[in-house]
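#lab-general

N.A. 3:47 PM
ok so I finally got the sequence cleaned up, no stray characters, all 267 residues accounted for. can someone with queue access submit it? mine expired

B.Y. 3:52 PM
send it over

N.A. 3:53 PM
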Amino acid sequence: MGIKERRTKLLLALFLLSDVDFKPVPLNKTVEVGFDLTINQKTKGTIASLLREESIEKISQQLSTDLGDGNSQAQPLVSYAITAKGFKELSLGFPFFRFLRESWDGKWRILSYEIPEKKRELRDKLRREVAGWGLGPWHRSFWVTPHPIIDNLRLLISQKEEEQYVQAFEAEHVFGNREILIEKVWQKTSLDRRYRELFKTWHEVLSSNSEGSAQTEVKLEKFKTIVAKYIDILRDDPGLPKELIGTNWIGYEAFNIYKEIRAILLS
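B.Y. 4:20 PM
back already:
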């Protein structure tokens, strides 16, 4: 699925299997196959770390198993749910998720950095670190986003060499064509095409037949492919709020289609 970090995989799984209401999710075969995540000791260590940091929470339930003759036995079921803190972390790397739950405050965040050419490695490093935050290049070394990333930026560069080269601002849009700005900064038309290609790929996956395999295994493998293809585009979607992109933005349609596919394949 193109993601190596266990922490990110876990947060993604808990969100993409639960939706915006943060329903608890059992860490079962669906998580392992769908998100390419083995529940081994290293993964358990990551889970423990997320629990300590309150980025996820553990939820225990008792399920009743019918033993016949009117008797039943309680079976423990342990599930996990992403928390608001974990969601904020996830939304930093996958900004599309943020405004599914939160409202935009109408402010733009502007990041400017003038790092000398002789320190190109430092400049490239900073660019890589903030590239997934929903920031888009407006001009050379001049980035803009509607996401509230100032605190994250401050934490990232505090007491580091690059701090002396960075300026950050918050502002409101006064006038100018926002459609032109959005196209220039985030290439909305290109992203729209990618979503349409994604829909075609999803249709091909769902229509394909795999003979000689158990139906459950086939569904899980299809779900794995659906998730992997979706994550590829989610990493590049800047997650613009509906006030900027409109309520009919194809990204919202994709999220709803994904949930319908999830319900079909995991039923």
